[in-house]
Amino acid sequence: MNNSELGRVQAYLLRHRHAETKSMRRSISREEREVATLLRDADLSMRSLLEEILDGQGLTLKSFNEFDAAGIHVGAMVFVLARKPDSNPPFFGTEKLIAKMLQVRGGINKESEAKIWFTQLWFILLDLLYTRKNRSPTSLQDWVETTFVKDVFVDAVKEYINDHVLKIDRSTLTTDAVYETLTSLKEGTISKLCQIFIDLMCDAGLLDEMETSNYRQSLLFAYEMKTNYDRQLEPLLPKADPFLSASTLLVEQTENKTEES
User: Which of 85, 124, 212, 247 has the least C-beta neighbours within 10 A?
Assistant: First the structure.
């Protein structure tokens, strides 16, 4: 791999965040195969140079083979571009997130509402991928068993609103901005919002679309959760049923913090 090829590899990874030499799960483009092959065959000096450049952007390059994780084709190499803890990588920025969420007509009208909904949907997705499947956040090998359909995710969101948020005593909230945001959308709008959220997750390389309306956690997602959970997410969550308890954290406590600020 020469300097020009290094730049090509970096640009591809920043766009897609993963590359495989071959896959048993999906078709691979010629560009992806070439990028993955360049990484596989790169000499130590060029690989180290690329990793140093990525490290300066808050990213780390991780490689896997068939012995490192399930779901990898025999003889294949998989490369993922993962975020380092407490870093602010140059992709998947807040502006893109907000712009996409604001596309939901008749629902989200403010940046604050977009952020509230994205955070809630993120925790519901974690509940779906981990709590309901009895998986540990530090689990990596069973990422291939996380397939779900869009309707299941939509139903989980509606269940969360009806069974958790709406049962909160509104009079106990210091301010009801978050509560109002989560309870003001119609069911049809919630479904559209869920699709936009899923699309964002796919664009970020965190979900793989297996077929129409069927999705699965990506190896990148599982690896980032395994490596970053203890430091970044666990301190925010209640110890008992962390993902199921997210309504308390994200509605009641968030309301209080909003008022204090």
Answer: 212
Q: Over the stretch 54-113, which tens digit does the pLDDT of each residue have?
A: 999 989 999 999 999 888 989 999 999 998 877 777 666 677 788 888 888 777 888 888
Q: Which of 49, 83, 117 is the last residue of a domain?
A: 83
Q: 200 with 117, same domain? A: yes
For residues 34 and 88, the answer to whether their CB atoms sit within 8 Å is no
| Domain range enclosing 45 | 3-83
Cβ(75)–Cβ(22) below 8 Å: yes
Does 166 lie in the same domain as 124? yes
Q: Are residues 25 and 75 in the same domain?
A: yes
- Pick from 64-73, 108-117, 221-230, 245-254: least confident: 245-254
Asked if 150 and 194 count as a contact pair (C-beta separation under 8 A), the reply is yes
Pick from 48, 83, 118: which residue ends a domain?
83
Residue 71 and residue 136 share a domain: no
Q: What ranges in the chain are assigned the alpha helix state H?
A: 3-16, 30-41, 44-55, 94-101, 111-129, 150-160, 177-183, 187-203, 219-228, 246-247, 254-260
CB neighbours of 69 closer than 8 A, spacing ≥ 6?
Answer: 78, 140, 141, 143, 219
231 confidence band (pLDDT: 50, 70, 90): low
Angle between helices 111-129 and 94-101 (to 10 degrees): 90
Residue 88 lies in a domain: no
Element of type H or E holding 18:
strand 18-20
Number of domains in the chain: 2
pLDDT at 11: 95
